[in-house]
């Protein structure tokens, strides 16, 4: 047997090596699938916080763009948001497990945005697991601020 034919025969993988690789890949896939989607409390809290802030920003933008006062109402039990400008109302479900409450534990949180960009001062808490944030509306500027 010459040196060239031995190199050609030794090139590639054996059946045993291929079987080991497939078993390891199968175990890794099994671990990922049984664990479910890769989510944690931080991601869930961040998603809920983003949904709530987006709804508040949309209400403020509506007030400024259309030159009308807009009322934002959030039901803390069902997480349904209602944005009303007096003549027209839009409702939507936030679909978030984040707990929302104000200091008085009212079932409905109300915020009011005015046509000039200002807002009725408001503050409420967001909580999920060990994560918490306070959302405040500035009366003078109407800005929505988050303090973690």
TrEMBL record:
UniProt GO BP: protein secretion by the type II secretion system
Pfam families recorded: GspH (PF12019), N_methyl (PF07963)
Keyword Transmembrane helix attached: yes
Span of domain General secretion pathway GspH: 51-139
Entry's transmembrane regions: 12-33
Main localization (coarse): membrane
Origin superkingdom: Bacteria
Location relative to the cell: Cell inner membrane
InterPro entries noted in UniProt: N_methyl_site, Pilin-like, T2SS_GspH
Listed SUPFAM superfamilies: Pili subunits (SSF54523)
Name of protein: Type II secretion system protein H
Source species of the chain: Neokomagataea tanensis
